Amino acid sequence: MEINLLDLGRRFRSEAGCIAYLRKEKESIGFTCRRCGSKKHYWNSRHISHDCKDCGHRLPLRVGTLLEGSKLPYRYWIFALYLMTMTKKGFSALELQRQLGHKRYEPIWAMMHKIRSLLGKAEQSKLIGDNVEMKNLVMTTIATTSKSQTSTNVLGEKQDSKKKREVRVIARVSEPHKPFKKQRRTTFKWVRFLVEKEEQQVVHLTFISPAARIAQRGILNARPFFLDTGFLRQFHPEDYERKLHWVVALSGNAKRIVNGIHHHVGEEYLQNYLDEFSYKTNHRNDGLESFSNVVKIAVSGNWWHNTRSLNGYTYSGPFPH
Q1: The whole model's pTM is what?
Q2: Is the model more confident about 104 or about 154?
Q3: Residue 219 included in any domain
Q4: Is 152 a domain residue?
């Protein structure tokens, strides 16, 4: 099922429609009272909350969801979730600010980064199997520096210091088959990007199935945890484009979109932008289901308490603000 912008505008024409939709999604998941543990509740339309029938504890609709701590209208969140999951190329925060007609840039920017972190959470639990292609991608970001460390150019103008970051690109492809006319040997299925830490010399790719067959582009520090049982193959540089077609193509697409749409990407936010690109690519044919699944995760009530991945590395605990 597909839904375009006109359908979205008709369906969520007011705040009441957005509240009703999020309320329905949250009630379909269910919740337990934080105070007494009861599962009985009723809807309080005056305070836009679910109130416990036993102890009267009030749980506002935003609390425990992706919207917690935000004062932006519900319609902003619905439209942002739709545009960031259903569009092919994506939007910058400045463009979304213009489309929503909001005065300030910072709240829209923060909202989009919260959504990007959620998209990364939605993809991190998947286990990659079958055939895997890997390569390293170098991307230029803006280094995190203080005002005193900001450099100047020959004209005396202040400029941001740039920094190159290594990104691990992992693509799942189909089983190779005999080549036919106008048909590629493999088809693309799934992709993931991991921004590497500078101090981490060995990356343990624990989300790759032990039975996966890996083909990579000469990555010296890639040591899968299943190296004793997995199949690891490296290609000569002359065969990169031909043998590793998908991972090379996806790396180029990601680099063009991140650099072309989102200018001056900070090094601490690079993983979020790549998570958005990965989700769009992996769910490009899902239609409305892609949007609906993200909304369910956003209102699930425990999305930040699970084991999360920050800047490509797993840790447990709440997601830092």
Answers
A1: 0.79
A2: 104
A3: yes
A4: no
